Amino acid sequence: MLMPSIFADDFMDDFFGAPARDNHRREERLGSLMQTDVQENETGYTVTMNIPGVKKENVKAELKDGYLMVTASTGASDEEKNGRYLRRERYQGSCSRSFYVGKDITQEDIKAKFEDGTLKLSIPKKEAIPEKKENNYIEIL
């Protein structure tokens, strides 16, 4: 006789087709994606982001209006599409993170490297250029 699970994750529930509590589990899995460390040094910042199971060509970094947005996506391969799953824990889909880096930073300033499921971004510090208050008065000589 099967007993109801008192724990949040019982593999037998999936196996025997019990009602899924998939939303809770999906949120837990998404929380472990794109874990990020931001480190400051004298010249700038180093952003290190874990993106396991994603290929380099599926990671995109975009700079727009002072925001750096990193997007990663992964999907099912042809071999995964054959057959019926009894349990599925690997994430498929896309996720993104964004960081405000300032309007003075350009794409050329940011250096990125992706290796072994880890994205490392180097972002330099730039001093904000103070806006000059324009004097609208005409000089009288």
Overview of the molecule:
This protein has 141 residues and is mainly beta. Helix content is 11%, strand content 33%. It contains 2 helices and 7 strands; from the N terminus they run ααβββββββ. The strands form 2 sheets. A 4-stranded antiparallel β-sheet has the order 1-2-7-6, with no helix packed on it. A hairpin with a 3-residue loop joins strand 1 and strand 2 (44-50). The longest helix is centred in the N-terminal third of the chain and has 11 residues, at 22-32. The protein is elongated and about 85 Å long. The protein starts with 10 loop residues before the first helix and ends in a 17-residue tail after the last strand.
Set down the secondary structure blueprint:
Layout: H1 11-15, H2 22-32, E1 36-40, E2 44-50, E3 59-64, E4 67-74, E5 93-100, E6 111-115, E7 118-124
Antiparallel strand pairs: 1-2, 2-7, 3-4, 4-5, 6-7
Radius of gyration: 24 Å
- Helix/strand order, N-terminal first: HHEEEEEEE
Segments where pLDDT lies below 50 for 5+ residues?
1-7
Distance between the first and last residues' Cα: 101 Å
Mean pLDDT: 77
Number of helices, where a helix is a run of at least 4 consecutive DSSP H or I residues: 2
Instruction: Please give the number of β-strands.
Output: 7
Shape: elongated
Helix content: 10-25%
Percent range for β-strand residues? 25-35%
Question: Structural class given helices, strands, pairing?
Answer: mainly beta
In what order do the strands lie side by side in the largest sheet?
1-2-7-6
